[in-house]
């Protein structure tokens, strides 16, 4: 029975995602390549590792045992690489950091940049994921540090406050709702929407679905600035972090309106497995992000 590190990473990704398709994507493999690797792993071990069903896959008892040992092996490999990087001149270490959309686009760059500049031999493998997936990835050892919304259950992970993220509706300054101070998200469900091509859109779509509505954005864009620009042109409304809307309002004819819905105000949390068990350089980054104050935090009782 011979499994390499790529096999172990793929298997963990599939188990955490509950899907071969999503696991393959997380491991940067095609579905065909991932399926063949998994088949070879089962053939090599002589045992079924996954129960395959219509709604996805789950680990068998043998698969759960493999996942447990895979996490230990990958943790030890990461520890070895980190320790060697402290002694090997010119060798670069990499920290895996998963963040939700708001943290990735608005809050993280200002805090992460100074730290990376001060640590030229350390790289950060940064990925945008929905908060729910980030928690699973941290628990499964697929990343060392995550930034998630506090609406997600994070136990038994270690958490620390990171920022406050308020979502607002951005629209043309001539839009009929532009003069409102606050509106409910339900008031926007009949309006044309500009979507975001990222994890934030899933968050918005989920709350629309709970209200019995399916959003069908006219277009999906990859930047908040792009959404604000199209909103200024009257294409529709967009949902963006207030910090982004404030910045864009300086140069674009837009208005933004706060949402009265509780889910629109999110506290962002840093999360990891036990901080004391992190490698020293990873712990340094976690502590730096936890105490950093480079990104503005908007008070909930401040009017636009």
Automatic annotation (TrEMBL):
Gene3D superfamilies for this protein: 3.40.190.290, Winged helix-like DNA-binding domain superfamily/Winged helix DNA-binding domain
Record keywords: DNA-binding, Transcription, Transcription regulation
PROSITE patterns: HTH_LYSR (PS50931)
Pfam families xref list: HTH_1, LysR_substrate
Transmembrane segments: none
CDD domains, per the entry: PBP2_LTTR_like_1 (cd08421)
Domain HTH lysR-type: 3-60
InterPro entries the record matches: HTH-type_LysR_regulators, LysR_HTH_N, LysR_subst-bd, WH-like_DNA-bd_sf, WH_DNA-bd_sf
Family: Belongs to the LysR transcriptional regulatory family.
Annotated protein name in UniProt: LysR family transcriptional regulator
Species of origin: Rhizobium anhuiense
Lineage of the organism: Bacteria, Pseudomonadati, Pseudomonadota, Alphaproteobacteria, Hyphomicrobiales
